[in-house]
Design goal:
By secondary structure, this protein is of the alpha+beta class. 42% of the residues lie in helices and 22% in strands. It is built from 11 helices and 12 strands. Bound molecules: alpha-D-galactopyranose (GLA).
């Protein structure tokens, strides 16, 4: 998206006459390369920021009124920052940015009023973290406008807190962290307990990342997500007194079999422990540019998410199975919370066109639905866009 067209839409919406300049920001979406449903189990995850995301055009005002508009709907959201901010169902998507403004105010930020316009090329509620994206984007931009830029880790933590407390989803830190700390051409290897992290180069060589959108709404996503969090806590509570482990990802497979009798909790624990091992192996494979091993680990991760963690579903499985059958693909898995949304595949560059045509057809044949596939690059985290044209 170009600044020129963002500026044009902004002026159409809010008018041109104003003493303050319009500023532009971008926050990427993310895919979780590997380490799925691990962040709230205290382990290592490996997400990456992607070239689809949300843009914002914003103009500061000399008052305390915030106007927000997204191209997703035709409603203006108007809030007076001097009034308490509370969750309002009728506010829809705008609860996410408002949750963040609430956090900033709690932290003592002196926020200005503003006119904000969001435009996105990131599919919404599709497992690419559109909610974390708008949270981090809003936090970053308002902190900048308040003249007190925020440390990127603190920004991620604030987004997660907004999501946990205001929205009510017990999500981990992975999404916000990836969007805050993304680095072009690199995955982020993050320890979710200590927030220690390292960038790991993703040298794709002859391969590219293709996102596979099932276009299936993530029904039950929030309640099932919280259910998985609770199951993991229950599994840990059984293992902890016997083994002394602190986090489920540390569980030894033999202890899981020995101390957890419930078959569901046992499978959940197996996923957490095995996924953790795969993250370490995947990081090592990327460091030595071994894409075949990395791709194999993606398939294996998906199998575990499908069978042990049970967060996949017919649509995501069809995408991954279809991808696996194509000769140009060396790895694929679902990304994010699951229950619909997106998967992604590693596909040979010169086979991408044929792969996309094939997978869309395959998906339609086996699900009766229309899916969409598109290529993405790995990019930097949230940023202010440089506007070269002076107004
Ligand atoms: C969602 C959550 C993340 C993480 C993933 C699963 O995207 O927001 O914190 O738990 O699901 O890996």
């Amino acid at each position: 998206m170009e600044i020129k067209s963002l500026r044009k839409s902004f002026y159409q919406l809010y008018g041109r006459e104003d003493p303050h300049p319009v500023e532009f920001y971008f926050a990427p979406g993310r895919i979780c390369l590997i380490g799925e449903h691990i962040d709230y189990n205290g382990g290592w995850v490996m997400p990456a920021a992607i070239s689809r995301g949300i843009y914002a055009a914003v103009r500061k005002e000399d008052n305390k009124i915030v106007w927000m508009r997204s191209q997703l709907d035709d409603h203006d959201l108007v809030s007076n920052l001097t009034n308490p901010i509370q969750f309002e169902k009728s506010r829809g998507w705008a609860n996410y940015p408002m949750a963040v403004l609430n956090e900033l105010l709690q932290k003592g930020y002196e926020l200005p009023g503003a006119e904000v316009m969001y435009q996105s090329n990131l599919p919404v509620a599709a497992g690419l973290s559109s909610s974390a994206c708008v949270e981090v984007l809003t936090g970053y931009m308002f902190a900048e406008m308040a003249g007190k830029p925020m440390d990127r880790t603190e920004l991620a933590q604030m987004g997660q807190k907004a999501e946990n407390d205001f929205i009510g989803v017990q999500s981990g830190i992975m999404d916000q962290f990836a969007i805050a700390h993304g680095k072009k051409g690199n995955a982020i290897l993050l320890n979710c307990e200590t927030l220690e992290y390292a960038h790991v180069p993703v040298r794709l060589g002859e391969y590219r990342i293709v996102v596979l959108n099932t276009n299936k709404q993530r029904a039950l996503h929030e309640s099932k997500y919280n259910e998985r969090v609770a199951e993991c806590r229950a599994a840990l509570a059984l293992l902890q007194p016997k083994t002394g482990i602190q986090h489920l990802v540390q569980a030894d497979p033999r202890d899981i079999t020995k101390y957890i009798k419930d078959p569901i909790l046992r499978r959940r624990a197996h996923h957490a422990a095995s996924e953790q091992r795969r993250v370490q192996e995947a990081a090592a494979a990327l460091r030595r540019s071994d894409l075949d091993t990395f791709g194999y680990l993606l398939f294996d991760s998906h199998r575990s998410l499908k069978n042990d963690y049970e967060v996949s579903g017919h649509e995501l499985d069809t995408m991954v199975e279809g991808a696996q059958q194509h000769p140009g693909c060396i790895g694929a898995k679902m990304s994010g919370a699951g229950f619909g949304g997106c998967a992604f595949a590693l596909v040979k560059k010169d086979a991408i066109e044929s792969f996309i045509a094939y997978i869309e057809q395959y998906y339609q044949r086996y699900t009766g639905r229309k899916g969409t596939a598109f290529m993405v690059d790995i990019v930097d985290g949230v940023t202010k866009l440089v506007d070269t044209k002076k107004e």
